[in-house]
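[Discussion] Sanity-checking designs against the backbone

I'm trying to build intuition for which residues belong where. Below is a C-alpha cell string of 114 positions. I'd appreciate it if someone posts a full sequence so I can compare it with mine line by line.
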C-alpha cells in the first residue's frame, strides 16, 4: 500500500507516501461516481509505515519479527482522499521495550497528530 519512503532515520522516524490513483481496486465500489479511499485503508497505510520503522535493521535487512496494529485511538479523518491525492505519513518511534514498541504519527510541525 505504501508507495515510497522519502525520509528515514534508523529507529527514530520516517516519512512514507501513498499516491492514490484512479486504478485502485477499491474505487469501483467505494463509491461509484464519487471515488473515496476507505478510512480503514488510510489506517493500513499508517500501520505499514510504522512496520517499516519498527522492523528495519541497521544494515537495511528486515528483522524476522511480526508487527501488529493493536489500536487506533482518536482517529479523525480531516478530509476525504480520492484519485490524484497523495497521503503523507510522518511516523516517529515513541518507546521500545523488549516485548513492545510504539510509534505515533506526527504532523509537519512535529506535534502529535490529533
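Best answer:
Here's mine. Compare freely.
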Amino acid at each position: 500500500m505504501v508507495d515510497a519512503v522519502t525520509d528515514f532515520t534508523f529507529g527514530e522516524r520516517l516519512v512514507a507516501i501513498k499516491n492514490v490513483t484512479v486504478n485502485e481496486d477499491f474505487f469501483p465500489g467505494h463509491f461509484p461516481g464519487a471515488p473515496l479511499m476507505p478510512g480503514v485503508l488510510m489506517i493500513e497505510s499508517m500501520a505499514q509505515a510504522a512496520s517499516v520503522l519498527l522492523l528495519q535493521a541497521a544494515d537495511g535487512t528486515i528483522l524476522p519479527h511480526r508487527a501488529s496494529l493493536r489500536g487506533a485511538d482518536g482517529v479523525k479523518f480531516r478530509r476525504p482522499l480520492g484519485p490524484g491525492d497523495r497521503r503523507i505519513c510522518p511516523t516517529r518511534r515513541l518507546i521500545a521495550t523488549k516485548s513492545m514498541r510504539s510509534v505515533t504519527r506526527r504532523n509537519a510541525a512535529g506535534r502529535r497528530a490529533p
